[in-house]
User: What shape does this take?
Amino acid sequence: MTQRKRLSATQSSSQSRRQTGSLLAQEEDDDSTFTQPSSTQVQRGLEKLTPAQVDQKTAEVVQYFLVKDQKKIPIRRADLVKHVVKEYRNIYPEIMKRAVRIFDQVFGLKLVEIDTKNHMYILVNKLETVEGASPINSPTNPKMGLLFVILSVIFMKGGVVRENLIWNTLKKLRVDPAEKHEEFGDVKRVVTDEFVRQRYLEYVRIPHTEPPEHEFRWGQRADMEVSKAKILEFMGQLHEQDPQSWSQQYREAHSTPSSTQASTSSQR
Amino acid sequence: MSSVTIHCFEFLKKYRCLLYSPIDCKYRVPSAAPHVDLLQVAVIHPTLQTTGSLKRAEEGRGGGNSRKARSVSDELSRDMSQQMGDSHRRFLQTMMANGIVDEQGARALYQHCCETHSTQCTPDKLDDFIDTINSRLQPMFMQIRKGMSEDNGQQYYALVNMAETNVTRMSSDYADNELELFRKTMDLIVGSENGKASSTDILNSTDTMTAKKLKKSETEHLLNRFVNDKWLNEKRGEYTLSTRCIIEMEPYIRAMYQDQVKVCHICRNIAFQCQICENPACGIKIHNPCVARYFKGRSEPRCPACDDFWPHEIPEVRRPQSRSRR
Assistant: This one.
């Protein structure tokens, strides 16, 4: 199940929602009652507050994003309003405008609304990676190696693959999804749940398949964070082949601007 | 085919850092030190207080005219943004990913960031470079702060969180009873003569916990977590506060342990692992590395305050190693 599906499911069944009263449902309620204030409302709201109060609230919002983004799960506007913005919701657009500016100017990060319907945000790094040159070795997450392999397979196979292909590829790399892996843990859960919630992958059931079969695509976060040109470069090294020899992939990798500056793709 | 894929995995393993980097999490907010939840008194950094009072003065003058005040702060931020470039941002992101970097590493990183973004790098201007970052970080209640390691006397830079808000509380990965154990460990360390707490003493202190009691195995596991998360150091069953912990918590420790806290006579920072003058009328404290530096090359060591003979063993001055950890 993708996150999006689950959300739309909870939205449509508003009755059962009220009955269960689960946490998720309550937050959903919060967001539905939240209406974006108009610019005159914002103006009036700002006049009642001191600049220090607005700065303080902006700082809290920035910290909230930085803290929550560590798990790479998209941040929901409903949660942001409920836990941080609170009584300042009448100036919400102004606070977000300032937060976006701070991420850009201070941290070199871009705050992106990844899902305009359900209002979810992620942070994307704006600075290009410099190949292995940093004198400081930052801690790395081994799961990203796993993700890199999966994204590479999907990209090389034209953007969508059946799940069996992924599992078989991983088996050949001595990662058996049926077994607990020493570094990745429950591989199947990491791939079909964690990566999906982080929006690195889409994992969707193929219609009319029995037993059900699924296919993988790149998720929105992968589109924004991962450079296709770099993947192709890696493939070239792996197969000792010129990246240009995969002409279709090469065109795709170089037609769209490199991931991190892909400002157009972030607007959808 | 299978030889290719095995090759691929080995390749991945070998080039882990290089490969992971395009999609790796490069930034992390400094998780607030475990004390934050226990904080009873608000510890506000002096620089924050001054900006706060500045703003209040501004408001006072402006009265209800918030628009005017806002345009002033807008102008200020525009000025500062001109100073901060991608080299600063890259430096900050690396600090966020690591939490703490030694001085040598920070210098190398400074040079690397400047070269990457083709900006001028003046080797002795690292602190100015960091000041520029701090001027924009402080409104977010964060700061890159410098401090000395009590183990090797080297300078370190740590990214610290100065806020005590609901938000930073969420970043704390510890439960209430776990935080209580951390505070008890700190009590033991601050109250000790040598700045250390033994695992036995820490295990015994769980008897007096008010929150849900921790079992022996849980306590041992938790102490390991504190070490892994770089809040504590462990050596032969004895725990000390890590450099990052001391840098981040200095204002808190000074406020919470006013009567117990030791201050180094040489560098004026708080001291845990130190030597103490044995003259009962004097009793000044000096960090071990400060002792080493101060008495280096003196034939007869004498207390810098009371001039009594300094009876302790004088440690060697440690030279910075090529790439030391922590």
